[in-house]
SAM-dependent methyltransferase
Amino acid sequence: HLSLRLARVASYVPKGARMADIGSDHAYLPAHLALNGQIEYAVAGEVVKGPFENAAHEIKQLQLDNVIQPRLADGLAAIQADDRIDTITIAGMGGTLIAKILAADTQKLAEVKRLILQPNVGGERVREWLLANQWQIMAEEVLEEDDHIYEIIVAEPSIVPFTYNDRELKFGPFLLEQDQPAFRKEWLAELEREQVAIEQMKKAAQPPVAKIKEFEREMQMIKEVIK
Ligand code: SAM
């Protein structure tokens, strides 16, 4: 049984996809899709031995060896040309790490038709990478599970040039429009964190004036969005 978070990520994987799930841990996501006949083939990439063994074990247990390949590799190095991967999922990490993984090996993305990215934090870092590399956001989703709020970002190679402004990069172009309760909750919590941080900084013997100003600007931007 998949978590709501992974079920929502799974929902964006096209039927018949040849997918690579990078940072797959137990390979729950590709295993679920394979068991339901939703994918043709998957690579479950893991850089850490323990999670890689979890993935290999899960795949064997479910007799999915002919559909899913576990690979011990850093990021997109798990993908080989003859895998003919068309869809990549990267879920359950920070946005900075997701962007770093994508940036490290862009040739591996040449034939990829869809990225489904689920940053736990730092969605802005993911959207900045997408914009810089002309991957257009096709859908976004925010969801709450077990007191955590998660973002999902779905992107495809763009045919026409496009751009996002600072507000869209920070909050997500679709998430801004949707203005879901979980979205408001996420940014209200961020406001509170920043308020506390500012108060702490102001107590310092030499308050970092520039940093405080930056946080105040940030808070102003959030307030405008969730007002
Ligand atoms: N994707 C699963 C999910 O969403 O439930 C597992 C998320 S788990 C919190 C993150 C996984 O990413 C860990 O198992 C970690 O070893 C793996 N990971 C981190 N950096 C990686 C990299 N550069 N390449 C491959 N896997 C990586």
